[in-house]
Amino acid sequence: MQAYSGIICDMDTYLGHEDLSRPLFINSCGYFNLDGFDTSLTRCRKDFYLIYLINGIGHYKLGQHVIEVDAGNIVIFKPGEKQEYYYLGEEKAEAYWIHFTGYEAGNLLDSLSLSDRNIYKTGVDSECINIFESIIHEIQIRKPCFHQLCVGYLIQLLSLFSRKAVFLEKGEGIFKNNKIENVIKVMNENYQQQREIDYYAKMCNLSVYQFIRNFKKVTHLSPARYIEKIRINKAKELLADTNLTVNEISGLVGYSDAFYFSKVFKKVTNFSPAAFRASIRQGIQNCFIDK
Questions:
Q1: Which of 56, 129, 271, 284 is disulfide-compatible with 92, CB 3.0–4.6 A?
Q2: Confidence of residue 177 (pLDDT cuts 50, 70, 90)
Q3: Confidence of residue 171 (pLDDT cuts 50, 70, 90)
Q4: What is the pLDDT of residue 36?
């Protein structure tokens, strides 16, 4: 058996601790690996309890039934809800867990659609594991503002669980979406380069038609319009923050023809590049004029 944790609240006992004076408060967070070790527990706590199974199997009594839960699921118990569960050593259960409270905790779970049942399929994900490890580490070393940082991690963690649960329930493969996300990253890093849509489709092992359809599901834009949006936003930054000419900016953001760049810029913003720069600088100047 292996286990480690970080405890913030000294009052986080067997029955837990409720703190409704703050929006969110983490009582404790930890990890266990029960390979070869049987354990069971029955209790009722005052705080929320989330378990993230990353390996093996856990058995949880929910209502009148004992549910067998495998890796890639989260189990959430609400304050006052009976917690009855067990793990068998031979099933090698491995999990992260966190106890949290606060007057906004329930509303946060509601807003993320993580409050209508106890079990959610999320998949095993290294990003979520890293967040748990960060929370535990911050609690253990207790640098200034560690709890505020941990609360931020908690919100990020719950948001990721919600997103992954939605993807799996809708039948949208996370793997496929990850490929689209990788394309989006490449587009943002290399927007100046001239690449055919076929190049991005091959990155996803999809036909051009399938790629465009999947890309639109994620971004609500065609690939061409998405790249155009990146280029025009970058052009706005350069027009506002530099003295580069329109011709220079055109080349920097991926347009070989300055006239065509100006045409696209005006179509998107309703301003010519020169007019956009003038309006931005006039607005900045007005900020320093005494009214």
A1: 56
A2: low
A3: low
A4: 87
Which H, E and C letters describe the chain, residue by residue?
A: CEEEEEECCCCCCCCCCCCCCCCCEEEEEEEEECCCCCEEEEEECCCEEEEEEEECEEEEEECCEEEEEECCEEEEECCCCEEEEEECHHHCCEEEEEEEECCCHHHHHHHCCCCCCCEEECCCCHHHHHHHHHHHHHHHHCCCCHHHHHHHHHHHHHHHHHHHHHHHHCCCCHHHHHHHHHHHHHHHHCCCCCCCHHHHHHHCCCCHHHHHHHHHHHHCCCHHHHHHHHHHHHHHHHHHHCCCCHHHHHHHCCCCCHHHHHHHHHHHHCCCHHHHHHHHHHHHHHCCCCC
Q: What pTM value is reported for the model?
A: 0.65
**Mean pLDDT value of segment 203-225:** 90
The number of beta carbons lying within 10 Å of the beta carbon of residue 88 is 17
